[in-house]
Write a structure and sequence with these properties.
Distance between the termini: 24 Å
Mean pLDDT: 97
CATH topology: Hypothetical Protein Ychn, Chain: A
Low-confidence stretches: none
Oligomer: single chain
Strand content: 15-25%
Number of strands: 5
Largest sheet: 5 strands, parallel
Number of helices: 4
Length: about 120
Amino acid sequence: MKKFCVSLTFAKNDSDKATVAFVVANAAVASEQETVVFLSIEGVRLAEQGYHESIHEEGFAPLRDLIANFVKAGGKIWVCSPCFKRRKLDETKLIPGATIVGGAKLVEFLSQGAASVSY
């Protein structure tokens, strides 16, 4: 199976990029790619329950639907551990499908030939 990674560093600080990243991730998982969204920097906030509920860019599905559909289709959301801890977020409030990982996990996935885009 081919691998695809979407790296996302934005959340409400650029909701357009956050939305488009999940549109692309949904397209990848729908085309039978093993797809990971790697959330880092401000993007980690999207992994906390309730945070993304109000994000809805005109012309796109609401971010809550894009994330839910991605996970339902088998997509994985990896959350940068140091970024998450630096922001003092609550690990007990992760959204479904999200896993806190270290950088080594991302490096391993990318080194297996995963294509990657960044937002």
